Amino acid sequence: MTEAHRLLHPRGWKEAKGFANGVVAEGRVVFLAGQIGWNAQQKFESSDFIAQTHQALTNIATLVEEAGGKFTNWKGERDIHCPDVIASNGKLHETALAILQGQ
User: Fold this and answer.
1) Do 46 and 12 belong together in one domain?
2) Which of 22, 31, 95, 102 has the fewest CB atoms nearer than 10 Å to its CB?
């Protein structure tokens, strides 16, 4: 890919073959592939739907952070269990949180 694009490959994750976990385009747009419930080594640790959903959401948060963004609840804590989350670039995250919190 050109310098305007960067593949997201978090440290410790097994190499993606035939797909990309995510792509940052010119630092403004992040594309994430359909994340499923396997771990960084592309292994399913559980056949349980809830556990796989937890892992898929963890994968999404990790990819957002790999792109330089933040994935938090409205209190600013990394939380994949909260129904109210925000994923944004790192530069605007605090401002977005303040708006969401009514400040």
Assistant:
1) yes
2) 102
